[in-house]
Structures are given as structure tokens and as C-alpha cells.
Fold these 2 entries.
Entry 1:
Amino acid sequence: MQNRKGFLIAAMSVVYLNTYAQVPEDALRTSWTTPNGTARNQAIGGAGGSLGGDISSNYINPAGLGLYKTNEFVLSPGFSFFNNNSNYRETKTSQSGSGFQFGTTGFVFGMPDRYNPNKSTAFSFAVNRTADFRNRVTYQGQNDYSSFTEAYAAEISASGLSIEDALNSNSISFPARMALYTYLVDTLTTPGRGTEVVGTPLRYAYLNDTAFLLNQRNDVETKGGITEIAVSFAGNSKDKFYWGVSLGIPILNYEKTSVYTEEDASNNTESYFKNAELRETATSKGAGINLKLGMIFKPVNALRLGLAIHTPTWYALKETYDASMYADLENYNAPSTVDVKTLNGGYLPEYKYDMVSPWHLLVSGSWVFNAVEDTKLQRGFITADLEYVTYGSNRFHSGDEEDASSDEYYNAVNKTMKEIYKGAINARIGGEMKFNTLMARAGFAFYGNPYDDSNLDGNRMFISGGLGYRNKGFFVDLSYSQRITKDVNFPYRLPDKANTYASVDGSGGTVMATVGIKF
């Protein structure tokens, strides 16, 4: 058996290779965002689309800023935690974590018209953590159905390249090439089937027409988030009609580390496979731009009707990819290790790409109790939002104009996202009871399933509550939001058979405090 280290030719000195790391899950994680903002907004389930009078309007419906006639500074620190329970092929595993959080922080400047008390404008500058990627998921179980090496075997077979050419090809993914390097993928010739590319963990089963059994485990940890800067302008006409526009500049920082292991569960020392491990770390950084437009109409003092639209966010991102693979193939080949630098001239590969998030359409309504002009005399409200998000419209585009070959890859990923994701409806409802300077609040939110396959259960539910105090230009709000989530996680995807996945039931909470001063 020839050593494949000899197949690594001088072309490996090229720093940038046209193999790409973006997958559909990358787009979903940035667009499947949930209630955030000030403690007040989180306490009412995030249902602030028609309510207004809160700096969170920058990120929901900027028309709500039109209700301001005074200036305000707001600071919103918080703390969050999570627990994930995974079920993979009837084996259950748990993970947990916690960390600092922050909600909407910034300024609002209300500017009444000195000549017309029923007209005013407002300007706002705010910062908000619109997405928190901090999470850990672990799952493991026994699999007699598939191996992660089948994905790489299928990729190499579909390319039509020989083993030697595939090992050096820029069109083959780094994990598939590492699988070739370590002999986790190789050719196999059998009577009646001829020569084909197969995963070595299944080699013994193919040769002896017998079953296989693998222990599989996947540890996935994500960090980072999206911090969005908002600059907004809003207006008020006759205290009946409010409009607003917000320019958003989201700054994305994301890191994903995964360790996938697979081992022979048969204890057969002649099976050509003992164990393998794939370690991957992908770091994405960049920024984007979006626009939010909104209006609120008050047909009567107590009723507020809102409408808002959020354009897609256009991100310009740069990703750095690192990976290593280890394989112990018993009597088939000596244990070996390879990392991505070996296949990339000693450098970590980097990718520049653009990502486009979905559209958001929001309709909302609120009813204010004792809706008099003096807010101190109001007795509370009930409010609700309905939001439609076009998850299937997520898109990737090449960020390198000189790399025309990437278009084919991104077109394929975009087609996949259109097939596996769908539009979903999010519903939020909340209310407040006001007792002079004290307020009690509660809310509920349900975020619909973005997966087109009805067998994939993905949704998020939030139950929240909080207290507030307002007096003489000073206010402080406290909230707690309990989340209950359902999602799925795929350790690998196969093109020619049903994919196995872990069901992930999550829970957790966020404690938020908002302190503000009117001036």
C-alpha cells in the first residue's frame, strides 16, 4: 500500500483553496433570533411592535420612537443560562452553561415641535445583543445504519476523480481529503460491485456481507453573537400617526468547535477500523447592514395598530477554518493524523463570503387601559405581535470576485436552503398592570418551526414576567424570561440515504435589568 503523503504535490503551497465551509445551518443560526431588548420588552414577551415608548423599538418597530417627547438614557445588563438534553439513537446526554448578557442600551432624543404640541420627532442611537450564540450540545449513541465517512466517500465518488487527484483537488472539501490522507476513505473491489470508494469503518461489513455497529459521539460548542448598532429617526403627527426608520449595522462574531468521534463497537480486532476523530473550529467575523421601516396608528386613544418590515441583512463575512483528523485502522493501515495546514501549504484556509438573511413582516396591536395623555394615570396595557419570517430566502454569495468557481457551490447551498427551510410565524403577547409608580408585567412568545420537513421538530417558546418602577424621571425594570426550545442537530449529512440526527430539548433563562434616566 503506497503512502499517501507522497501524493501531496507542490500545488499544496497555494494558500487559498476553493473548498468552502458554509452550510445551511450557518444561515439559520443568525436569523432564528428570539426576544431581546430592555427588561420591559423581555418581560412582555418581546411584543413591543405597536406599543412604543421603549428604546427597544429601534429593533422591532422604529415608529414606536415617535412617542418620545423627552430625552432618555438606558442601560440593560443581564445574565443568561442554558441546559440542553439530547437524544441520539435512544441515548440521552446533557450539557449546560451560563454567561453575561446585555439588552438594548443607548439614547433617545425626543424633540417636540415648539409650534405644534401634537407633532414631534425623535432620534435614537442604540446598541443591542440581537443574537447570542453561546451554546453547548453533546450527543452519543450506537449506529448500525451509517458512518460519517460515507459522506466523504460519496463526495469523492461524485467528483469522478481518482484517489490521487482528489487528495490534491481544490474542489474536494478538506475533511474529505483528510479522510483520504488517513485512509478513512479508500477504494474497495468486490465481486459483482466492482471498484468503488467506501468508508473504511464499513469495509469489513462490505467484504463479509455482515452488519456493523459504531459508537458515535459529537461535542459541539458555539460562542459569540450579533451586536447591532441602530441609528433611528421617527416622527409623530397629531398623536395619531407615528412613523419611523432605523438603520441597523450588525457586527457578527461566531466560533464553532466540534469534536466528532467514531469507534468500532464490535470488539473485532480484524475489522480494519478501531476509531477515528475529527476536530473542527470555524471562526466567522464581519458586519452587515439592514433597514427597518414601521408605522403605528391610533384610531382612538386606547388602540394602537402597528406595521413594520425588516429588510434582509446583507453581511460581508470572513471565515477561518481549522481541522484535524486521526484514524486508527487496526490491521489496514498504521494510525495517522493530519491537519488542514498539511493540505494547505502550512496555512489555515480563509473564506470571504456574503450572507443575506430573511425578510421580517410584523403586524401588531395594543390596548391601553385608561389611555389618557398623562402616562402616570394610565393603568396598563395588553399587546400582541404576529411576525412572518422567510427562512427559506437565506442566501450565500461569494465575497471574492476573482473566485468564479465558488458560484456553483453557493448556488447548491442556496438551493438546499430553499428546500429544507420554510417561512414561519412567530407570535408574542404581553401585558402590564400599573399601580402608580410600580408595574407588574407578563408575556409569552412562540417561535415557529423553520424546517420544511414535518419530522424535524424545531420551535422556541418563552414565558416571561417582570417588575418596574418609575418616578421623577428615573426608572428601573427587572425581568426573567424562561425559554423552552426544540431543535435538531446533524453530525453529518449523506446524499443517498436518510440522515440520522439528534433531537435537542433545551431550556434556560435570562435575567435582565434596565436602568434609565429621562432628561
Entry 2:
Amino acid sequence: MHGKHQLMRNFYETIMPIYQQLASDELLERCARCLTGNSKEILHSVIWNKCSKKTSASLCRVKIAVADAVCKFNVGSLKSLESVQEENNILLNKKSRYLAMWRDYRRVYQRRRKKSVAFELAKKNKLARKRKEYYFFKKEGVT
């Protein structure tokens, strides 16, 4: 309960079991082996890139970040930008359209690249290397 913001005791007692579950060795091992990449984690990453966890933000700011992230996650940057601009009666300029199209292109490109055989092979090699390092780390013990 140290730090910039302190929790009231009843909140601390409610949150602590959840924290312990999330910080369990089993879950952390799965994360270290790169076995937890799912769509919810990707969406959370997009949200936290828009609204940092490290700084305090108002509820309104968080709601805006979540709405924007969900919209971009579901329909892409260009459609999201067009709908927001249209809703607010703002004209969409060429540069904004180009940047949104570029983001969508990169997103599709990265998705296709990650589905490729070469990427899967590299991912398996990385996982094997991590397992080998972990094995030697466990074998060596604490120094």
C-alpha cells in the first residue's frame, strides 16, 4: 500500500486475491513462453497505448480511448476516422486519409505475415530457444 496513491483497506483486500492469481508462477510462465496472445490482450494493448496506465486520466478520457480503440479494432482506422469526422461535421483531409489507410495496410500486412509459414517457424524456434534457456537456468540453480 505504498506509492503515490493508496487504496482503502477494503479495496486492497478485494483486489489482492485477483493480483495474486494474475501474478501466479503458472501464468507468468505461459507469458514468458509467448503462449497468451489473444484478441483481448491485443485490444487492451491498443487501449493502453491511447490512455497510459502510468498517468492518471479522467473517466471521460478513458471512455474516449476505449471507444476509439474498439472502433479501430473492429472496423479499421480509415472507417473509424471517417465515421468520427462525419459525426462531428468535419471534413477529412488527404493527409489524415492517407495515414489511416497506411495504418490499415500495415495492420493487414502484419496479420498476413504472422500467418505465414516462415513466421510460424521463427516463432517455434524462438520458443524452443526460450525453453532451452529456461532448462539451463533451472539446471544451474541460483548463483
